[in-house]
Amino acid sequence: MRHQAVRGTFFVVLLLGCPGVCQAKVSGLCVDCHTMHNSQGGAPMAYTLSSTGTKVYGSRVNEGLLNTDCIGCHQGTNAGGSLPFVFDVGAPNYGTTGTEAATNTLAGGNFYWVSQGAERTGHNVSGVTPQDTAHGFTPPGGAAMDGQITCAGTLGCHGNSSAATQTQAIMGGHHGKDISGWQDGTSVAKSYRFIFPVQGFEDPDFEFQPTQSQHNKYYGVDRSSETNLAAGSISSHCARCHGDFHNGSNKIAAGSFGSGVWLRHPIDFDMSRAASSTEYTTYNNGGGTANPYSVISPVATASTSAGVNTSVYSSTDDAIVMCLSCHRAHGTPYDAIMRWDYKKWPQADGYNGCAVCHTSKN
Amino acid sequence: MPYKQKLTRKAAFGVGLFCLFLPAAALAGAYLLSAHGSSTVGVERSVMASAGYGRGNCGHCHEMHASLAGDEPAPAGGEASPYALFAESLDLGKPYTQTSNFCFFCHNSTGSAQQVTNKDYSERFGGGDSTGPQDIMVAFNQTSSHNLGDIKTFVNNSSAYPWFSDDSNPCNGCHNPHLAKQNWVSIPANSAISKPSSHFTLWGEASPQLMSAYSYEAPYAIWQSTYVAANREPDKGTTTDGSKTPDYVGLCTDCHNSSNTINSTSLGRNLKVINWAVGGEKHGGLAPESGESIHVRQPYASSGKSNLVLSCLDCHDPHGSSNIMLIRRRVNGANLEAAFTSMDYMKAVCGRCHDASVGETYKWRDMHHGTAGAPYTATCGGPVYGTGCHPGGGVPIPCGNCHFHGSDDSWLLGRFSFASPTYLKTF
């Protein structure tokens, strides 16, 4: 009885703290996520998941009275529900590009492959896989970090990067999330996938079997300078660790950014401004106006409206190249966390997702 | 409408219009059809192949982030390079090394990225042996060659080629690396060339971009003293009208025409003006003088065609040559009788098509002084060989005194009191 009362009180408090009815805000019983005393009948409630997916109860007590950690909640097999699984202990169905009808991975891919020792197929997140044997704590294109990458926090991608711990970093996010509107990046809860302060519009299905009209809407900045950090863009967040691949003097462009010559593949740049070729006008087999959006090689947009962008070259700056045009954030079966098997192309078992944009390079 | 969208729409219209005229093959995988993009013979940088990159993959030439698994793969320069290529071209002059030009990292039989064999025109299409260069870099390091630095300067400074940038590779002046095919594999359906004014399409794969568009007679690849259809360039076959030879005139005159001024740092002067159009030069579209007898050899003598037009590559090897002026080491079915090391020995190449021994013992005299149409029968003392134009008596004068691109005989003006130039074209 006492437990039920506590649960009820906690839930009411949560509801009162929410300014209205929010889509995709965490729902259900508090006990689904929290344990008040890490004790049930004297047994510990906090757990981690083993490499086989079974709960391992121990003596740890989690911040935020949480039952488990990030992986503990987000480990499983996707079937299209509201809880996104990013790590599966069994091989997910990625298909060829992670977008086909039978696939069960999400927008970020899955940590499965990197967990199996294929280091180049995923971010080497603590708790999923050991640190990278080739690079340790130094990410390609960036400076050495203070430790292994984590899901959230100072060393992580999600939450507030100035927070001391992962839980503190993500605090308030799950309870404050409202995915019905544009995520303006003003708080963790109002940031795209809690990636503070990244903007975007979130697909409620996390891009489970995405289509032209069902996918995330990524925010990008059409830059005119390679030193522009493109604040709020999804790519700017990648640049926190992989900065040389995104910004910096003489890192991306020789001469004028956008009208000169690229030194590295441009990011946070709108393809409609490409001076060297007209091949981008036929993005995804389109005709140059209102080309169909590709979930295989997606682009970001400067639009901040709460609506899915189903076409490209329909509005200003809606064809912005981003890191996620080619890569996924968590993991894929392919090296460099590519969305498709770029390395093997043009051999028979490779796939040329590049040709979605580079339409003459097929 | 935002300016960019206007541009986009214009571009889209342009692409659409352009696609209407594209051969189907180009729409269905132009890069994969190219020599570089081929999954069987395409680019294959050794370090990338070791990392699992498939043959023909972009990564063999381009590094998207100047990084492979966190480190810059060989050849590592420490910085990202223009066009995200794995190395920068340093644009150094002769002798060319692989660091001089990005292409030489592979088109070099000792290249560090890949070793590619390429034969010269004389061997590949001219029926010659393999004593010539076996890769492009060696070809460029011969006695004469296209000056890559001059090409870059000219193309970059010309408004006719807006796609070319300060960082573009001069080889791209004639080749589009994403389109160029192995031209010897399927003649003429495979082209390796693109006109600089039309860089994004191949040139010379089908009519009318073939030499058959002119009054052309394919030279012999293997010399025949009589007229036969066989043994013709470029495939030693029986095609005589140039329908297997790309329109090299169209390619070369994109730059080497009568309008452009092209400076050669190698020669220390501007290049001779070339006018291959109708009314231009005799080896081009200019009709012969009435009654002119030039004693041509086979297959031209019996071609039955009037006003023959030569392909530039009938005489020149486009990358370089052991002779001066990029003159081929083999012309019209046979090697030159001697190295063409100065304009004084021009007869070595002229003689492959002009029979200098007709009518007399002294070579060349008859065609200048002896035949009915000879130009210098009176001013030089009549039809018999004289002494006025030939200091030293009977010593022949070098062909190059009068015969070169754009030449006429105006050089006689004022040189000899009795010599009056005719101002007739002499090339």
Per DSSP, the total helix count of chain B is: 10
The percent range for helix content of chain B is 10-25%
- Point out poorly predicted stretches of chain A: 1-22
Shape type of chain B: elongated
Percentage of residues in DSSP E strands of chain A: 5-15%
Name the shape of chain A in a single word: globular
End-to-end C-alpha gap of chain A: 66 Å
| Share in helix of chain A | 10-25%
Question: What is the gyration radius of chain A calculated from CA atoms?
Answer: 21 Å
Q: How much strand content do the residues of chain B show?
A: under 5%
Identify the quaternary structure here: heterodimer
Short key terms for the protein model shown above:
heterodimer, A: 362 residues, little secondary structure, two-stranded antiparallel sheet, globular, disordered N terminus, B: 427 residues, mainly alpha, 10 helices
Description:
The complex is a heterodimer of chains A (362) and B (427). By secondary structure, chain A is low in regular secondary structure. In chain A, 10% of the residues lie in helices and 8% in strands. Chain A contains 6 helices and 12 strands. Chain A has helices at residues 2-16, 70-73, 112-115, 166-170, 173-176, 234-238; strands spanning 47-49, 55-57, 150-152, 156-158, 200-201, 217-218, 253-254, 261-262, 269-270, 291-292, 311-312, 320-321. In chain A, strands 1-2 form a two-stranded antiparallel sheet. A two-stranded parallel sheet of chain A has the order 3-4. A two-stranded antiparallel sheet of chain A has the order 5-6. In chain A, β7 and β8 form a beta hairpin. Chain A starts with a helix and ends in a 41-residue tail after the last strand. The relative contact order of chain A is 0.11. In chain B, 15% of the residues lie in helices and 3% in strands. Chain B is mainly α. Chain B contains 10 helices and 6 strands. Chain B has helices at 3-20, 24-27, 30-33, 46-50, 121-124, 136-140, 148-157, 248-252, 347-350, 365-370, and strands at 144-145, 263-264, 269-270, 320-321, 330-331, 334-335. In chain B, β5 and β6 form a beta hairpin. In chain B, strands 1-4 form a two-stranded antiparallel ribbon. In chain B, strands 2-3 form a two-stranded antiparallel sheet. Chain B has a two-stranded antiparallel sheet with strand order 5-6. The chains are: A little secondary structure (362), B mainly alpha (427). Chains A and B meet through β8 of A and α1 and α3 of B.
